[in-house]
Amino acid sequence: MRHYTTDSPEAMSRIVALALLADGALDPREIESLDRRAILDKLGISHGTLDRITHEFCNDLLQCARSPNVGQIELDRDLVEHLLDDIRAPEKQQQALAAIVEITEADGCLNGGEAILISEAMSRWGLELQHVARTVVRRAQRPLPQPATSV
Length: 151
Hints:
The chain is mainly α. The protein is built from seven helices and no strands. The chain is globular, with a radius of gyration of 18 Å. The model has no long low-confidence stretch (mean pLDDT 86).
């Protein structure tokens, strides 16, 4: 796997590419979310840089990732942690996690690989979802006991 300078646009681009590919395919809705939600602008990434890094990332994956079945690539935890470790500045980690969440929710479905990526990023970077998500995260409340009714 290539090495990029810590916190660089290339390192951030690879996190975006990872989020785009976490469910196993490039979904047009996820790609459209990059412009619709100005994700690349927020991260300081140009379209050209993202395109180049995505191609490099795919090439690297073909060389080093596990391929249990033809046409499928599995990302192992060590590889994901290595990629996440390239983002060290706390504000960039928050921006990257927010981008991951926005990208993965764009198609309205959270795939297992996407959920694992979000969970790993939160754990590795010590972040909580409510700090980056648009959705308000509230504590679960117990339902009030219903009064007994007689028949």
